[in-house]
Inverse folding.
């Protein structure tokens, strides 16, 4: 009998219990993975905004609750532009509006038409709006196709009916699902004259990006610079809190899973006291007994992982379709999510299985053999 | 039998296979199972141990198998004091084979798998384990029952499976606790012959039996009474042998 068949035969013999145990693991894995992929989706879509601008880096207000509440006033924008090594800056105001029931979190980008090309925007059809127009806009091509609008259509936003003057592309799905307005129109409607959410910075050719960033944060300590998605938390406290909450829930899910695994395996060790005593008596080492019990635990954990990842896929794609979350929640199934699932299962079976395994290993063989 | 010239002789000066010196065993409940036991079993000897129920035979075997520690005294196997062996699992796995008084087979795996479980973690791979298990089952005349479950075997057949398992890793010492307990006379004699053959191959056999007729098939008989060895069958000490023979006669009486 191959060792693995021997080691796993009890799991096969007690199918109901094995399935229950795998289900508990699967549930914990599902929770952990769903939290991970949705929070990483949130981070990704929030971070996508900084890659719209095709800039060397982005300047935002330090420790803003989230990117949309970051404010940089006109004076600060000017001082950023004066920092040596800064070639050009583009100030952009981001706002979120409910356009209709299907688009509860539609992104509006206020940007001056002369900045569009530097911002990496390509006009695909029609033309850009005029700098001070109050009822003109451009739609990203994804937004246009979602809303069924085209050049010349009327688009209701900012309290007015806007004429769509053009359709643009940024090459970035976040930007392409948004709309662009003249900067003063968005500032005026939201009563934040002169304010930008973010300033996109391009440095002089050959300038050291990091040192330009340092100069900016030195001169304007209330601002921060962001170059990668990982630095995003600097300007988005909410994301930091979200990540902390996800970490906390993950630990909790792993602990609950581990307790269930431990409980069930302890019961199975007690039931097999005589058998374990016999194995010890005929010369199985303690380590081998630990291995036997842990093998069972790992097998269940991996079965649970497979099911849990599948469930998480279903649950998160269902969550994406909940009306209140459409456009806000994006899942992001990365290889990291699968590693996290495996790690979760591994942690659960290790933490949960260790005590039963050690109990089994330290049974006194003779006593165990006469156990009823 | 002891004069059989083909039997491998223990090398000159080799330590005895089993040596108990001043051994006492008290269980935690206050039961004193063995007192001042001195016993030497030479390498390649086939010794039968007998005595009334509860006199401490199983206790003695468990001490030699390193399943329990003596309260006093020294137990040596092949010259090594068991109290000083660090890896007792390895000792139990490779140096002694133990056949328990109760069968102690795993009920839900096949007979051949029951023999194989003694070989996990040894140098043998899956195929070699299986081959060895079948060879051992053949040796105890159970080749045909290899794929059955232990519950489908008779008591004597189960004992033979346990013997096959105890031999899996070629131990130098075989300890068998009443393996003939529920066998008819003919089956018991065949089993004793099997132990005789093992002894002929150089194995040391210490066997517990109530049946003095069977015990006579061993090279030597040791008798325990109330936790003490009452020496029997030692030709070099005729006075004691006589006393023991009288005791044997008492036991054998209906
Ligand atoms: N684990 C234990 N705890 C307490 N007392 C025990 C234990 N095991 C055995 N005893 C006692 O020790 C004594 C010797 O027991 P042992 O099992 O060695 O006898 P035995 O000679 O093998 O008997 P039998 O022929 O009936 O198998 C008995 O009085 C028994 O009750
Ligand atoms: Mg006994």
């Amino acid at each position: 009998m191959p060792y693995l068949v021997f080691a796993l035969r009890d799991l096969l013999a007690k199918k109901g219990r094995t399935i229950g145990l795998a289900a508990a693991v699967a549930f914990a894995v599902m929770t952990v993975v769903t939290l991970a992929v949705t929070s990483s989706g949130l981070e990704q879509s929030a971070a996508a905004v900084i890659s719209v601008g095709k800039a060397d880096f982005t300047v935002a207000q330090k420790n803003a609750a989230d990117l949309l509440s970051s404010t940089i006033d006109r004076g600060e924008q000017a001082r950023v532009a004066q920092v040596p090594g800064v070639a050009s800056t583009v100030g952009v105001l981001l706002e979120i509006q409910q356009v209709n029931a299907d688009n509860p979190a539609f992104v509006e980008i206020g940007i001056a038409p002369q900045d569009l090309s530097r911002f990496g925007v390509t006009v695909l059809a029609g033309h850009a709006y005029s700098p001070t127009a109050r009822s003109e806009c451009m739609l990203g091509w994804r937004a246009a196709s979602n809303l069924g609008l085209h050049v010349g259509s009327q688009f209701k936003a900012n309290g007015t009916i806007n004429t769509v003057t053009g359709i643009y592309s940024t090459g970035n799905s976040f930007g392409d699902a948004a709309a662009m307005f003249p900067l003063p129109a968005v500032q005026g409607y939201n009563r934040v004259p002169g304010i930008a959410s973010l300033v996109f910075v391009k440095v002089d050719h050959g300038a050291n990006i990091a040192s330009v960033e340092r100069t900016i944060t030195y001169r304007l300590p209330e601002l921060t610079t962001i170059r990668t998605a990982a630095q995003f938390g600097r300007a988005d406290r909410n994301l930091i809190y979200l990540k902390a909450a996800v970490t906390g829930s993950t630990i909790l899910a792993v602990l609950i899973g581990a307790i269930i695994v431990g409980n069930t395996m302890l019961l199975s060790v007690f039931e097999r006291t005589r058998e374990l005593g016999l194995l010890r008596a005929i010369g199985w080492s303690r380590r081998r007994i630990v291995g036997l019990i842990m093998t069972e635990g790992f097998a269940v954990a991996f079965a649970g992982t497979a099911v849990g990842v599948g469930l998480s896929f279903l649950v998160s794609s269902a969550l994406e379709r909940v009306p209140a979350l459409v456009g806000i929640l994006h899942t992001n199934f990365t290889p990291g999510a699968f590693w996290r699932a495996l790690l979760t299962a591994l942690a659960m079976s290790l933490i949960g299985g260790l005590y039963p395994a050690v109990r089994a290993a330290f049974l006194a063989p003779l006593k165990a053999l006469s156990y009823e | 039998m002891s004069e059989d010239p083909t039997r491998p002789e223990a090398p000159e000066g080799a330590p005895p296979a089993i040596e108990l010196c001043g051994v006492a065993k008290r269980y935690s409940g206050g039961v004193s199972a063995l007192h001042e036991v001195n016993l030497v079993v030479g390498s390649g000897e086939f010794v039968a141990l007998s005595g009334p129920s509860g006199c401490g035979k199983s206790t003695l075997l468990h001490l030699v198998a390193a399943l329990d520690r003596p309260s006093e005294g020294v137990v040596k196997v092949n010259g090594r004091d068991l109290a000083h062996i660090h890896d007792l699992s390895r000792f139990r796995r490779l140096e002694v084979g133990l056949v328990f008084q109760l069968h102690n087979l795993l009920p839900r795996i096949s007979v051949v798998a029951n023999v194989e479980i003694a070989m996990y973690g040894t140098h043998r791979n899956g195929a070699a384990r299986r081959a060895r298990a079948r060879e051992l089952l053949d040796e105890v005349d159970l080749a045909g029952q290899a794929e059955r479950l232990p519950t489908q075997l008779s008591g004597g057949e189960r004992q033979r499976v346990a013997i096959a398992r105890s031999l899996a890793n070629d131990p130098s010492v075989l300890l068998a606790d009443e393996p003939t307990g529920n066998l008819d006379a003919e089956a018991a004699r065949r089993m004793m012959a099997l132990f005789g053959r093992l002894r002929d191959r150089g194995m040391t056999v210490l066997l517990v039996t109530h049946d003095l007729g069977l015990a006579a098939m061993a090279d030597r008989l040791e008798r325990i009474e109330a936790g003490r060895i009452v020496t029997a069958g030692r030709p070099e000490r005729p006075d004691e042998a006589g006393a023991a023979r009288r005791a044997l006669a008492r036991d054998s009486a209906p």
The pocket of adenosine-5'-triphosphate (ligand 1) is lined by residues B 27, 29, 31, 33, 53-59, 101 (CB under 6 Å). The interface with chain A takes residues 62, 65, 67-68, 87, 89-94, 98, 100, 104, 106, 108-110, 112-113, 116-118, 120-121, 126, 165-166, 169 of chain B (CB under 8 Å). The beta strands of chain B are 18-26, 32-41, 46-50, 72-77, 80-81, 96-99, 173-177, 204-208, 220-225, 228-231. The longest strand of chain B covers residues 32-41.
